[in-house]
Design brief:
- The protein is α/β, with parallel strands linked by helices.
- It has two domains: 8-189, Phosphoenolpyruvate Carboxykinase, domain 1; 196-266 and 334-512, Phosphoenolpyruvate Carboxykinase, domain 3 (Alpha-Beta Complex), CATH 3.90.228.
- Helices cover 25% and strands 26% of the residues.
- The chain is built from 13 helices and 28 strands.
- The strands form seven sheets. Strands 10, 11, 12, 13, 14, 20, 21 and 24 form an eight-stranded mixed sheet that branches. A seven-stranded mixed sheet has the order 1-5-6-7-9-8-4, sandwiched between helices. A five-stranded mixed sheet has the order 2-3-16-19-15, with helices on one face.
- A hairpin with a 2-residue loop joins β5 (91-101) and β6 (104-113).
- The chain starts with 7 loop residues before the first helix and ends with a helix.
Length: 512
């Protein structure tokens, strides 16, 4: 019995049967979903729909779950109220499948009011239709009810029941993350670990001098807008004529399983940032975003349909839902058969372009989650330093236990781990751009990087990287007062790790 006097079962049964209720439009076509919100649409020069939402980022400070938070009667009442709304007004209900892995595939059901069909339109493009087994209304594993015009903003989650209520927000990202959050939670319950990460498969020649290709599985952990999507989707400038290739499998959320498989979640589309998107720098991504199949959100689109990706007229967190089929670097499959390399993306200005980590140091990097706050999280703090465990703001349950499990998984699987700085060194005088990061990733995959111990930082860093003058990026030469800054940083890191009671001592002792 919940604190509000309602059982969770009664909350579920309060929702209308989508196939029988007169006020529920069940699994409408994409064209119909677009029609429902045509009063909100601006059509772009590419023929795609563009919308502007009232809420333009997630409301992390107004999100509570029944595992980590003090979840009282008022919280259950909010969920009950959202479900009541779904029973009393005309709603759109869409079922989609999240994930393809046998043990990590879920039926997801989203309810939104008809006039906000644009949310269902964008969300539906991310996940695949539910496989038809003859049952027109499959039993959902996860259910989200989103009521954008509620009087207050509140996101309430019952993780073990797979139920989420999104009140007062019309941001598509809240619908998307309501399901991905549960995907990661259930991965942990099943012995794996959910990751806010992109994954890719790289096939290339190695450092042996032989012509045979080898396959390398890579995963990228990073907060939104730190380069995770860019690096995951990048082709690495490989020699395609010789059969080399880099294939993006997942862009946002996946699950590292005990056997080394990285199970994907989104099988149909991606939810990408558009600010500063340029055709010359990211041609594949640009083509997908400018295809008529995309759905734009909070992007500056003029009345005549002209799109300005450089403008932050509404927000710097402009987004596009794109279809995987329109992204040339995306593979047909979404699961990575085995992971060999994990990269933690940071923008800490005293970190080298890349450093190789032991399993314990990798767990430190996981727990630190050091980066720069972006507009996708808290726009009011964009640009400030931030620490988010696992670079994953959607963890539910003990964060210390997540760090322990990450250490155990990468150690058992013999995964090589790295921290990758995609920002700059020092006070900004030495930028680490996409070209430098891509060169590093390619040569690490190829096995041509030579490593040595860096006395200045105490880290294992490259001494030679083919195609890159790595010596120009020495931290000691680019960061003023380095010893003082590193001492302060290590003290802050130890203090941060001490806040996690469940974290293993050998991880605490590996602070770098």
């Amino acid at each position: 019995m919940s604190e509000s006097g309602k059982t969770v079962q009664s909350l579920e049964t309060a929702l209308p049967d989508p196939a029988e209720a007169d006020d529920v439009i069940y699994n409408p076509s994409m064209d119909r979903l677009r029609e429902f919100s045509e009063h909100l649409e601006t059509t772009t020069e590419f023929g795609s729909p563009s919308y502007v939402s009232e809420e333009r980022s997630r409301n992390a400070d107004k999100t509570k779950n029944a595992v980590d938070d003090d979840f009282g009667a008022a919280d259950y009442d909010r969920i009950e109220g959202a479900f009541a709304e779904a029973s009393e007004r005309e709603m759109v209900c869409v079922d989609r499948q999240m994930g393809r892995h046998a043990d990590h595939s879920y039926v997801c059901r989203l309810y939104v009011p008809k006039e906000f069909g644009r949310i269902a339109l964008a969300w539906s493009k991310l996940f695949e239709p539910v496989e038809d087994d003859g049952d027109s209304t499959p039993d959902p594993d996860f259910v989200t009810v989103q009521v954008p015009d509620a009087d207050e903003i509140a996101i309430r989650i019952l993780p073990d029941e797979g139920l989420t209520a999104v009140l007062g927000s019309d941001y598509t990202g809240e619908a998307k993350k309501s399901f991905l959050r549960l995907f990661m939670y259930y991965a942990k319950k099943k012995g794996g670990l959910g990751l806010h990460a992109g994954s890719k498969r790289v096939c290339l020649t190695d450092d042996s001098g032989e012509d045979d290709l080898k396959t390398v599985g890579q995963a990228f952990l990073g907060l939104s807008a730190t380069g995770k999507s860019t690096l995951t989707a990048h082709g690495l400038w490989l020699d395609e004529e010789s059969g080399e290739s880099a294939t993006m499998l997942q862009d946002d959320v996946c699950a590292l399983l005990p056997d080394g498989t990285v199970a994907g979640s989104e099988g149909h589309g991606l939810y990408v940032k558009t600010i500063g998107l340029e055709e010359e720098e990211q041609p594949a991504l640009y083509r997908a975003v400018t295809d008529e199949s995309a759905v734009l959100e909070n992007v500056d689109v003029a009345d005549d349909g002209a799109v300005d990706f450089d403008s932050d007229r509404y927000t710097s967190n402009g987004r596009a839902v794109i279809e995987r089929d329109e992204l040339s670097s995306a593979g047909e499959d979404i699961d990575l058969g085995g992971v060999d390399q994990v990269f933690f993306i940071t923008r800490n200005p005293v970190m080298p372009p890349v450093a190789k980590l032991t399993p314990e140091e990798a767990a430190v990097a996981f727990m630190l989650g050091e980066s720069i706050q972006t507009s996708a999280g808290d726009p009011s703090k964009a640009g400030e330093s931030i620490r988010v465990v696992g670079t994953n703001p959607f963890i539910m349950g003990s964060k210390g236990e997540e760090g322990n499990r990450f250490r155990d998984l990468v150690a058992d699987l013999d995964v090589d781990c790295y921290v990758l700085n995609t920002g700059h060194l020092g006070e900004g005088q030495k930028d680490i751009g996409v070209e430098e990061s891509v060169t590093i990733l390619r040569e690490i995959a190829r096995g041509t990087v030579e490593w040595s111990d860096d006395e200045a930082t105490g880290l294992t860093t490259p001494s030679e990287v083919p195609g890159l003058e790595i010596s120009e990026f020495a931290v000691a030469d680019n960061v003023a007062n380095l010893d003082e800054k590193l001492a302060k940083l290590r003290t802050e890191r130890r203090t941060h790790l001490d806040t996690f009671e469940d974290l293993a001592d050998d991880i605490r002792d590996a602070v770098y």
